[in-house]
Amino acid sequence: MVNWIGIAALNMALAVALGAFGAHGLKGIANAEQLAWWHTATLYLLAHALGLLLVGLLIRLNYASQTSAWLLQLGVIIFAGSLYAMTLGAPRWFGAITPIGGLLMIAGWLWLAVTAFRLGNNAL
Known about the structure:
Helix content is 77%, strand content 0%. By secondary structure, the chain is mainly α. The protein has one domain (4-122).
């Protein structure tokens, strides 16, 4: 079984580090649009790291499946990763894959909802 709590913690540490780099290391290098991409990527990475932490706890309690965690993790990698890459100079067409990451994150949350509704009153 994958240690989703550990992965979530690594994601949170990475979000803080990348946020700090964006605030300090990209000054004078990136334009306003690129800094906005970086900010959005960091916000989504941090938010979904916290969500993944919750999902990891729910998996340990047998109230969620790893499917939700995988969808969230792959989604945030593609979503945030494509925005980070464009900020650092990847071609703008790279942004075409960003929505795929968003769809995977949405699917992860919807899968968690389906799982919760299936459990109904049997949960907690």
